[in-house]
Design brief:
Protein name: Lipoprotein
Strand content: over 45%
CATH class: Mainly Beta
Organism: Tianweitania populi
Helix content: 10-25%
Keywords: Signal
Number of strands: 8
Number of domains: 1
Structural class: mainly beta
Low-confidence stretches: 1-29
Strand order of the largest sheet: 1-8-5-6
Order of helices and strands: HHEEEEEEEE
Mean pLDDT: 81
Largest sheet: 4 strands, mixed
CATH architecture: Sandwich
Signal peptide: 1-28
CATH topology: Immunoglobulin-like
């Protein structure tokens, strides 16, 4: 026992609209190459690149969040200018000769506090590449984020694409990203 279809109902109108869209997309054009998808060759990935080692990246414990206070307001919740956090991290490696170049990235968010004003804020983000206790790379970045809406969070992406190290003979290299406030005054 089937369900009768009403020709004046929502189903019929949807069917007519769908058929009209299909007919419109089948019309020919004056430019025959306009509708042809881009058939660019995909990049060739060598087997050595598939087997190559790309060190993992993570947030260093205790450095994934950062708070800034108005002058003299450290620890006072009413004096918070903003709070920032870093979350998801990723990396990509390219290989040339005996070196590996690593591009790392982290997603971040800035949440305005009671003392925020519109403008650009600067956050200290450090990237460190280590093998045991040996530091292979360390750089402090000054990440700038424009904050125009003082009532909502602002998302940002942090990227460091300038990491080049010798290809590690063992898979024992780690990459860390985190806020670095420096030595306490």
């Amino acid at each position: 026992m089937g369900v009768p279809l009403k020709t004046g109902g929502l189903f019929a109108r949807s069917l007519v609209m769908g058929l009209a869209l299909i007919a419109a997309s089948c019309q020919s054009s004056d430019n025959p190459t306009r509708d042809v998808p881009d058939m660019a060759k995909p990049p060739v990935v060598r087997e050595s690149e598939l087997r190559a080692y790309c060190p993992g990246v993570s947030l260093r414990e205790g450095t994934s969040y950062f708070s800034t206070y108005a002058k003299g307001g450290d620890g006072d919740a009413t004096k918070v200018i903003y709070q920032a956090s870093l979350s998801d991290t990723t990396r990509a490696c390219t290989y040339e000769g005996d070196n590996v170049t690593i591009k790392v990235a982290a997603a971040g968010k800035v949440v305005p506090g009671p003392a925020v004003r519109p403008g650009t804020i600067t956050m200290p983000i450090r990237v460190a590449v280590v093998r045991g206790s040996e530091v292979l790379y360390s750089k402090l970045h000054q990440q700038q984020v424009p904050v125009s809406d003082t009532t909502a969070a602002t998302q940002f992406m942090f990227t460091d694409a300038d990491i080049t190290i010798p290809m590690p003979p063992q898979r024992n290299v780690s990459i860390f990203i985190g806020f670095d406030e420096g030595a306490k005054k």
